[in-house]
Amino acid sequence: MLLAAFGSLAILIGAFIFQALGFAPCKLCLWQRWPHAAAIALGGLVLVLGPLTLLGLAGLLSALVAAALGAYHTGVERGFWEGPSSCSGNAGALSGMSGSDLLSTEMPVAIIRCDEVAWADPVLGLSMATWNVFASLAFAALWLQAIRTNEG
Q1: In the chain, how long is the greatest CA-to-CA distance?
Q2: Contact in structure between 39 and 11 (CB atoms under 8 Å)
Q3: pTM score of the predicted model
Q4: For 52-74, what is each residue's pLDDT tens digit?
Q5: Burial class (CB in 10 A: 0-12, 13-18, 19+), 110
Q6: Is the dihedral of CA 75, 63, 17, 31 positive or negative?
């Protein structure tokens, strides 16, 4: 259980490093961080309470949610389906803006697009969202194995 929780910690540290290097996260990237944060908190509970089956099930669920969000984000990046309207498609376009919005002197907030790959690895061309799917599924396997070990 602790190994899976530390894996989630590594994922979050990596995400923050990429962010520090100038790769701003989109809305879906931020959504993918929450299940990893939950897994880290569950790892803390494992340290305090011991490896309880309920904690393992919650960790398994958090890893599967992270994988599902990563798969959804990958599909948005690849154009398999539409993403949230606030960061995909025509997000940031002039449509839907009022006259006062168009005449405003305030600088518009930059929209980080969910349907564009911010970074892909140079060897396989997989995005961070896709790598999150693979890592999260590996963590789910670790949580599952920990549950089985704890019950045996």
Answers
A1: 67
A2: no
A3: 0.86
A4: 999 999 999 999 999 999 999 99
A5: exposed
A6: positive
What are the tens digits of pLDDT across the range 75-89?
Answer: 999 999 999 998 988
Tokens 């790769």 locate to 23
Residues contacting 107, CB < 8 A, separation 6+: none
Q: Residue 117 has which token pair?
A: 């790959």
Q: Are 71 and 133 in contact (CB under 8 A)?
A: yes
The domain limits of the chain are 2-78+111-151
Q: Give how far the C-alpha of residue 34 lies from the chain's centroid of Cα atoms, to the nearest Å.
A: 7
d(CA 103, CA 136) in angstroms, rounded, equals 45
Q: What are phi and psi of 32, to 5 degrees?
A: -70, -20
Give the helix, strand, coil percentages of the chain, each rounded to 5.
65, 0, 35
